[in-house]
Write a structure and sequence with these properties.
The structure is a single chain. This protein has 13 helices and 18 strands. The radius of gyration is 22 Å and the shape is globular. Residues 286-292, 409-429 and 455-471 have low confidence and may be disordered. It folds into two domains: 3-126, no CATH class; 138-353 and 390-399, Rossmann fold, CATH 3.40.50. It is of the alpha/beta class. The chain has a twelve-stranded mixed β-sheet, sandwiched between helices. A three-stranded mixed β-sheet has the order 6-18-16, with no helix packed on it. It is 31% helix and 21% strand. This is CHAT domain-containing protein. InterPro entries: CHAT_dom. Residues 57-338 form the CHAT domain.
C-alpha cells in the first residue's frame, strides 16, 4: 500500500503550515501553505448540542484548507478516487503539538465521503527522538499479546471476550498466539484463570499493587502487542495511565475509591521501545476519569521508537470502547496471521501499514450509532501514531519455532554485533538510554532499565509505592 505523507509544522513565524512531504507522485511545490483555520474555528460535538452534520462540516473545512496546496490537493484527490482495493494511506506528519489538536480523521472530500471510512486510511506520524533505523525484529513463529484490564468502575469482561475471541479465531488459521493478562477485577481473574487451565498459551495474573511490578510483568511477557483497558488522566499536561488493583475494586464496592497504580509517560517511553513492542493500544474509556490527553502519550510512545501506538483523542464511552476493541483485534490478528506466514526458506522482510486496520473498527462504531457518521464523532476518536517509514518484521525460516514453549526458560541471546534479539530486547539500546535519561526520569523507570541492561541493581528495592502509585 502506498502512502501520502502531509507534513504539518511551524514556519519561521511559528504559524502552522503544511505541504506534501511524500507521495506516489513526487512533490513539485515545496513551499508550505499556512493553516488559516484554527482548531477553535472548527465545529465541535461538545455542548451546547452540536448542529446536525457537524462532523461532515469539520471534514469539509479540513479538505478546503488542505486543497490550498496544489500538491496536497492532487494527492488527496488521487487517494479518494483510487480503484477499490488499491487505497493509499494518508499520513499526517505532525511536527508541532498544536497540529495534534486537529481531527484529521474527519477529512471529508467534496463528494461528502469520509476518507477514513470509505477510501483512504488516515494515520499520524510522530517525529522520532530515538533513531532505531535498521533494527528489524525477527519473528520466530509465536505472537505474544499482553493485555492490562484494569479500568476502575468499568467492567472489563466484555473487553476481554472480544480480545480472546479474536485470538481464538487467529489460532484457527494457524498462527500461534500466546496471551498474558493482568486483571484488576477478582471475579474476572477467576474466570480467565479457569479458561487458562485448559489453554496452555493463556496466562492470567492479578494487577500488582506497585507500578514497578506492573512494568516488570509486562517486560517478562515480552509482548509484540500491548493492550491497556484502563483510565487515563493528566497532571499539568503530563499524561499517565491509572490502573486499579483488586483492593481498589473491593474498596469501590463499599465507597469511593481511586486507582492506586499510575504509569507515567516517561516510564512508558523509556521501557517499551527498547523492549521491542510492535504496537501499543490505549483503549482508555469513560468511567468518571478524564482521558482528554491520552493521545499525547500515544504520540510520545511513537516518538520514542514504538512502531505504532493507538490512543483515544478524548474520553470514549465504555460501549464504544468494547466495540472498537472487538473489531480492531479481529482485523489486527487476521492481518498479522496473513503477513507472518512461515517462509519456505531463507529470510523475508515484510512491511506493515497499520492505518488500514482501523477502517473496519471505525465502520463498526458508526454502525453501532444508527449509521450516522455525519453527527456521531466517536468513530474518529481512535488515532494511530507511527514512524515515518513503514514498520518491518523479519521472517527467518531457520529461526522458526526457536522460541521456547510457555513456562520454559528463554534461550541465551545470540552472539554477534548489537541488534534486536529474537525476544525484541537489545541491551545495547537500553544501555544507551541509561546514559541519555533526563534528571527527572522516575526512579522506577531507571531501576527497570538497569535490570534490562544487566546493570547492578540498587542496594534496596526502596519503600512501597505510596497510595496513588509511583510519583
Amino acid at each position: 500500500m502506498s502512502r501520502v505523507i502531509i507534513q504539518v509544522g511551524p514556519d519561521r513565524d511559528d504559524a502552522l503550515c503544511f505541504r506534501l512531504e511524500r507521495g506516489p507522485i513526487p512533490p513539485t511545490d515545496r513551499k508550505p501553505r499556512k493553516l488559516v483555520c484554527s482548531v477553535a474555528q472548527l465545529p465541535t460535538g461538545k455542548p451546547p448540542p452540536p448542529p446536525n452534520g457537524w462532523v461532515r462540516e469539520y471534514g469539509r473545512r479540513l479538505w478546503q484548507e488542505l486543497s490550498q496546496h496544489p500538491d496536497v490537493q492532487r494527492a488527496l484527490s488521487n487517494a479518494a478516487d483510487g480503484p477499490a482495493g488499491q487505497s493509499q494511506s494518508i499520513m499526517f506528519n505532525l511536527l508541532d503539538q498544536r497540529a495534534e489538536l486537529y481531527n484529521w480523521e474527519m477529512l471529508c472530500d467534496e463528494g461528502d465521503r469520509f476518507l477514513a471510512l470509505e477510501r483512504a486510511p488516515i494515520g499520524r506520524i510522530a517525529e522520532q527522538g530515538i533513531d532505531l533505523a535498521g533494527a528489524v525484529p525477527t519473528f520466530t513463529g509465536r505472537l505474544r499479546v499482553t493485555a492490562v484490564l484494569s479500568a476502575l468502575g468499568v467492567p472489563a469482561e466484555q473487553e476481554w471476550s472480544g480480545l480472546y475471541a479474536a485470538v481464538q479465531a487467529a489460532r484457527a488459521t494457524g498462527i500461534r498466539v500466546s496471551v498474558t493478562v493482568l486483571v484488576g477485577e477478582g471475579d474476572l481473574l477467576d474466570k480467565i484463570s479457569d479458561v487458562a487451565a485448559r489453554d496452555r498459551d493463556l496466562h492470567a495474573v492479578a494487577v500488582p499493587d506497585r507500578g514497578t511490578d506492573v512494568l516488570r510483568a509486562i517486560t517478562d511477557s515480552r509482548p509484540h502487542v500491548l493492550h491497556f483497558f484502563c483510565h487515563g488522566a493528566a497532571d499539568q499536561g503530563q499524561p499517565r495511565l491509572l490502573l486499579a488493583t483488586g483492593q481498589d475494586v473491593e474498596r469501590q464496592a463499599v465507597g469511593p475509591a481511586t486507582p492506586s497504580v499510575r504509569l507515567h509517560m516517561e516510564q512508558m517511553r523509556t521501557l517499551l521501545a527498547p523492549l521491542g513492542v510492535w504496537l501499543v493500544v490505549l483503549n482508555c474509556c469513560q468511567g468518571g476519569m478524564a482521558a482528554q490527553e491520552v493521545h499525547s502519550l500515544a504520540h510520545s510512545l511513537a516518538a520514542a521508537g514504538v512502531p505504532a501506538a493507538l490512543g483515544m483523542r478524548e474520553t470514549v464511552q465504555a460501549l464504544a470502547a468494547y466495540e472498537f476493541s472487538r473489531v480492531f483485534y479481529r482485523e489486527l490478528l487476521t492481518e498479522l496471521g496473513t503477513r507472518l506466514a512461515r517462509p519456505a526458506d531463507g529470510v523475508v522482510d515484510v512491511d506493515f501499514d497499520w492505518p488500514h486496520i482501523l477502517n473496519a473498527p471505525r465502520a463498526a462504531l458508526v454502525e453501532s450509532h444508527s449509521d450516522d457518521a455525519t453527527t456521531f464523532g466517536e468513530w474518529t476518536l481512535p488515532v494511530l501514531y507511527t514512524r515515518l517509514d513503514p514498520f518491518q518484521v523479519r521472517l527467518a525460516a531457520q529461526d522458526w519455532d526457536a522460541e521456547p514453549e510457555p513456562g520454559q526458560p528463554a534461550p541465551p541471546p545470540a552472539s554477534g554485533p548489537p541488534g534486536l534479539t529474537s525476544d525484541g530486547v537489545t541491551m545495547a539500546i537500553v544501555a544507551a538510554l541509561l546514559n541519555r535519561l533526563p534528571a527527572d526520569t522516575p526512579p522506577d523507570a531507571v531501576a527497570e532499565l538497569r535490570r534490562l541492561a544487566g546493570a547492578a541493581p540498587p542496594d534496596a528495592d526502596g519503600p512501597a509505592d505510596a497510595p496513588g502509585g509511583p510519583q
